[in-house]
Amino acid sequence: MENNNFDHIFSTLKQNLNQLKTGICLVKATTEMYQQLGFSQEEVLIANAVPKRQHEFRAGRHAARAAMRTLRPNYIDAPILIGSNREPLFPKNISGSISHTEELCLAACADKYHIASLGIDIERRVPLAEELKSVVYTHLEQQVLNQDNHLPSALMFSIKESVFKCFYPFVQVYFDFLDAQISLQPDDNTSGQFTVELIGANRDSLLAKLPPLEFQGYYIFNQDYVFSLCFFIQSSCPDTPICT
User: Fold this and answer.
1) I need a labelling partner for 153 at 20 to 30 A (CA). Which of 41, 191, 231, 238 fits?
2) 99 labeled part of a ligand binding site
C-alpha cells in the first residue's frame, strides 16, 4: 500500500543494499498484492483466517515472488507454504523473509549461494508496553534505551524479531527474547548497525547450530516506523545492483 511516511526509509534501504553489494532484493507490497488471490495451495492455508490476515498473507507472498523474479528472471512463480512454526517456506536455493505492519508489507529475498539466511522486521514506532520490557529486553538493553531518549523503544524488539528469522533455518526454534543481547553501532541519529550475542541457558545449544559465517545487521527508523535487517554472508555478491 502507498505510505509516504515509509517511502524515504524504503528508498534509503534499497540504496544501502546495493552499496553493500549484498545481493538482497527488498520489495514493498503494492495495493494490488493485498487483493490478488494466491496459489490454491496458499489459499487453503488462510481459508479460515479473518480478511485482514488473508490480505497480509497474500501481500507477503506476492511481494516475495516479485523479489525472486528480480533476482532470477527465469524464476517460475510457485506457492510459498508454511513450515511447522508458521515460517514461510522459500525455494531451497533462496533465502527469504517477510514482515508486515497493519499498513505495510515487505519481503526480502537473496540467492542462498550469497546469503545463507536473512531476516527482516518492520514495526510501527509505538512505545513497547511497560509490562513487556522485562520480557523482551536484557538489563543492558534497557540501560541503553533509558540513556538515549531518541531511540525508539520498539527498536530492540524489531531487531530481535529479524534475528529470530535469520537464525531459524539453522537452529529450528524461535528462542526466547532474553537469549539474545543486542549491541548498537549507530551511523547517525536514525540508522546504524548491530551485533547480537547469545546469552542465557540456551547459548551453547544455539551456537552449536549456527554456521561459521559473517553476520551483519542493520537498522533504520523515522518518526513512524522501525526497520531491521540481518543476514549471514555465504560468499561475495556480484557488483550489479539488485534492488532497483
Assistant:
1) 231
2) yes
